[in-house]
């Protein structure tokens, strides 16, 4: 199997439709995706078009060039930069006499290789089957062509077979989706419970391989080392496919939940985004996003755009955001440095972690107030509550009750206003 994979030699083909300015980068990205699938890229072809060629996606002249490149490099695979229609794949494979896949298949393959949890596996499989379903027609026609039959009888047999395959796949999608729903329901319950704790949620988002998981681990190391719950950080595309939530307890009884999740890439397949909706819901409910950027990548601004576009696509538009310009150790930028919403840092050598946390703090603990309260002695439970959930600066015992100088959530301040004797801030 592995042997077979290593022998894949591919020509990449892209169409720059209406002069998209991020076209060059998307081809580079396609090469990285191919590499992540152990495919050797032996040639690249691009074509500027104002309109896609409906039957073959590219023009006839380009098709000849692809054929020549395949021959020259003994290629056995052609990868298109966009999702192809079933008939385009069929026509291309017939004319090039070679396997043709698109960007979507590549991304789905990588996801399938990386999926470790049952939830991620189910999500990827559902997306793969949904991609396959409309493409079964092509399968039937190529079968028909192979057997050389064009008679009604043959076609009838093909159709029955197609219907059977289709039904089988639809049934499988239904069964897998059901299993997935159960898992998702379980996670939603967990999320609701967490919500009850009213801890603010901070989500790491960003382009794949930017260093999200490394930042998560750096924060765990600093604030929650007792829990051996580090996440996988690795130099590869889509190392993380599942959402992990960790509690980050700070010194003054404040805490937040930190979420690490799947990274983005441009043109993430639609089915995949849909299948991963439940995973991304965690991000949608965050109080603050940390947009992690690989600042050592000369194209980092493009990567920011891609992430923002993907966030928009999944309906996330108005969550306050801090930018973590990570991997700054590989640049000339002095670190650590904070400029507005940007923290220049390097998670791997642990530079700028404190600065990042202090930016997080100033945003998620905005609604904290300092005050003094006197809590009657028959309300002992409330004193314990504040000792656990607020930053108690001083405690003394007065005839009327326990006197606390504390910093607490605005909501708690409102709730227990009757005990407040002095609001400081
Ligand atoms: N030089 C340098 N490398 C870093 C830094 N932060 C992370 N890395 C490396 O970058 C690679 C990717 O890091 P991850 O934390 O796995 O990235 P991610 O954003 O979680 O990636 P995905 O889960 O694949 O989306 C790893 O090899 C890290 O060691 C940094 O500040 N400097
Ligand atoms: Mg990761």
TrEMBL record:
It is found in: Cytoplasm. Its main location: cytoplasm. GO terms for molecular function: GTP binding; GTPase activity; metal ion binding; ribosome binding. Mg(2+) binds at residues 213, 240. InterPro entries: G_HFLX_dom, GTP-bd, GTP-bd_M, GTPase_HflX, GTPase_HflX_N, GTPase_HflX_N_sf, P-loop_NTPase. Keywords: Coiled coil, Cytoplasm, GTP-binding, Magnesium, Metal-binding, Nucleotide-binding. Its cofactor is Mg(2+). Residues 159-186 form a coiled coil. GTP binds at residues 206-213, 260-263, 326-329. Residues 200-368 form the Hflx-type G domain. It comes from the Bacteria. One of its GO terms (cellular component) is cytoplasm. Belongs to the TRAFAC class OBG-HflX-like GTPase superfamily. HflX GTPase family. GTPase that associates with the 50S ribosomal subunit and may have a role during protein synthesis or ribosome biogenesis. Monomer. Associates with the 50S ribosomal subunit. This is GTPase HflX.
């Amino acid at each position: 199997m592995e042997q077979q994979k290593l022998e894949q030699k591919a020509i990449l083909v892209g169409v720059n439709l209406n002069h998209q300015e991020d076209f060059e980068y998307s081809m580079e990205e396609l090469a990285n995706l191919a590499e992540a699938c152990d495919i050797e890229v032996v040639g690249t072809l691009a074509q500027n078009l104002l309109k896609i060629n409906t039957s073959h996606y590219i023009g006839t002249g380009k098709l000849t060039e692809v054929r020549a490149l395949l021959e020259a490099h003994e290629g056995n695979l052609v990868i298109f930069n966009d999702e192809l229609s079933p008939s385009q794949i069929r026509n291309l494979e017939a004319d090039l006499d070679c396997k043709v896949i698109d960007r979507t298949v590549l991304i789905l393959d990588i996801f399938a290789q990386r999926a470790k949890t049952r939830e991620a596996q189910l999500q990827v499989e559902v997306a793969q089957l949904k991609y396959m379903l409309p493409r079964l027609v092509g399968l039937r026609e190529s079968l028909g062509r192979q057997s050389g039959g064009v008679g009604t009888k043959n076609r009838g047999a093909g159709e029955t077979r197609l219907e059977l395959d289709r039904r089988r796949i639809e049934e499988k999608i239904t069964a897998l989706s059901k299993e997935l729903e159960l898992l998702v329901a379980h996670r939603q319950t967990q999320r609701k419970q967490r919500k009850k704790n009213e801890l603010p949620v901070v989500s790491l988002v960003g382009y794949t391989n930017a260093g999200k998981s490394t930042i998560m681990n750096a924060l765990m190391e600093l604030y929650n080392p007792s829990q051996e719950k580090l996440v996988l950080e690795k130099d590869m595309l889509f190392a993380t496919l599942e959402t992990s939530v960790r509690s980050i307890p700070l010194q003054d009884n404040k805490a937040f939940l930190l979420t690490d999740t799947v990274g983005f890439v441009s043109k993430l397949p639609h089915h995949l985004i849909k299948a991963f909706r439940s995973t991304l819901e965690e991000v949608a409910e965050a109080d603050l996003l940390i947009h992690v950027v690989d600042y050592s990548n000369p194209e980092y601004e493009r990567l920011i755009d891609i992430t923002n576009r993907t966030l928009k696509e999944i309906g996330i538009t108005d969550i306050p955001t801090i930018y973590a310009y990570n991997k700054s150790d590989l640049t000339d930028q002095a670190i650590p440095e904070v400029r507005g919403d940007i923290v220049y840092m390097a998670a791997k050598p642990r530079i700028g972690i404190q600065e990042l946390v202090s930016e997080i703090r100033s945003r998620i603990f905005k609604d904290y107030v300092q005050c003094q309260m006197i809590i009657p002695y028959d309300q002992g439970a409330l004193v314990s509550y504040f000792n656990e959930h607020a930053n108690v600066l001083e405690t003394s015992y007065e005839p009327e009750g326990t006197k606390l100088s504390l910093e607490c959530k605005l909501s708690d301040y409102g709730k227990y206003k009757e005990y407040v004797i002095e609001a400081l801030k």
